[in-house]
Amino acid sequence: MKLLLLLGLVALAQCSIHRIPLQKGKSLRKQLKEHGLLEDFLKKHPYNPASKYNPVLTATESYEPMTNYMDASYYGTISIGTPQQDFTVIFDTGSSNLWVPSIYCKSNHHLFDPSKSSTYVSTNETVYIAYGTGSMSGILGYDTVAVSNIDVKNQIFGLSETEPGSFFYYCNFDGILGLAFPSISSSGATPVFDNMMSQDLVSQDLFSVYLSKDGESGSFVLFGGIDPKYTTGGIYWVPLSAETYWQITMDRVTVGKRYVACFFTCQAIVDTGTSLLVMPQRAYNRIIRDLGVSSDGEINCNDISKLPDVTFHINGHAFTLPASDYVLNEEGSCSLGFENMGTPTELGEQWILGDVFIRKYYVIFDRGNNKVGLSPLP
């Protein structure tokens, strides 16, 4: 085993792979609370994670509610243009477009200035993305996008002219880099990773994600490879059930030993752009009932050790979250990292396996074989 691990590390060092370090930002919930804006925000913008997964209305419209970033966000740095202009972005497996703020809108974030890039190519195309908290609209252009030491040539991306609501002022990131499939891309824009593959910039047609827990550092997205340091517990492969989002079939969900949800299989989306673990309303109600938790998900931090495991049975394997993983503790205030789906989408009452789930597993997103790999983390 030690020899195999050593050989794997040597291969990792030699291959064309590219690691993007991620940092975990202060939650938007906490920032709004610090500025006395949280209560008003929640009244005006009720949380509806389902809206992210509604189909686009036209070729230039897409839905993606940024309230998914209320509780946590992991973001990294990319560069656009020549010379490079830097931006922090969410690496989002639940969407497919790349967009950043531009000089055409008022924003406190980094702004892309196309006049300062010698490689920028303008278009007459527009892009519109609707959020639960407002909307982003803008124009599309082409330029070189640098992700780590990968230079993606002629990458199409959105330059915002309007941004989604005043709350965006408090976000720790500038834009979004979508890592889902071209089939859900607004305006038919080619996703960044698709260009990485077609331009032979990665050694394998896959990328992997590690999200650290609590205040730990070390989170990353690895393009083109799998880091064997995080797969010592084995890799459990799950075939995709759709080539849109990173969608898979779940067999059932149990609380302790009790079978509580997903009785006849159900669909789940592995989504780095969703902070919580989202489920259908009826499943949410049954789970909090079995956990003995109030409907708002708030709990006494001293009760965490008394709560049972929640297990997701996927493709013949059990993926278990102990309470220490599914309860969020923010400065002594504890709540479940679960959320109900709200209004069902056109995709049905699917589940969203967001960061609460991903922090427990090293996840491999394999485009070459259309499957997801899950490796338990210690």
Automatic annotation (TrEMBL):
The UniProt GO MF terms for this protein read: aspartic-type endopeptidase activity
Ranges for domain Peptidase A1 come to 74-375
Record-annotated active site: 92, 271
Any single GO BP term: proteolysis
Keyword annotations of the record: Aspartyl protease, Digestion, Disulfide bond, Glycoprotein, Hydrolase, Protease, Signal, Zymogen
**Which family is annotated?**
Belongs to the peptidase A1 family.
Q: What is its EC number?
A: 3.4.23.1
Q: What does this protein do?
A: Shows particularly broad specificity; although bonds involving phenylalanine and leucine are preferred, many others are also cleaved to some extent.
> Which residues belong to the signal peptide in this entry?
1-15
Q: Got any disulfides in this one, which pairs?
A: 262-266, 301-334
Entry-linked InterPro entries: Aspartic_peptidase_A1, Aspartic_peptidase_AS, Aspartic_peptidase_N, Pepsin_A, PEPTIDASE_A1, Peptidase_aspartic_dom_sf
Can the keyword Transmembrane be found in this entry's annotation?
A: no
Name of the protein in its database record: Renin
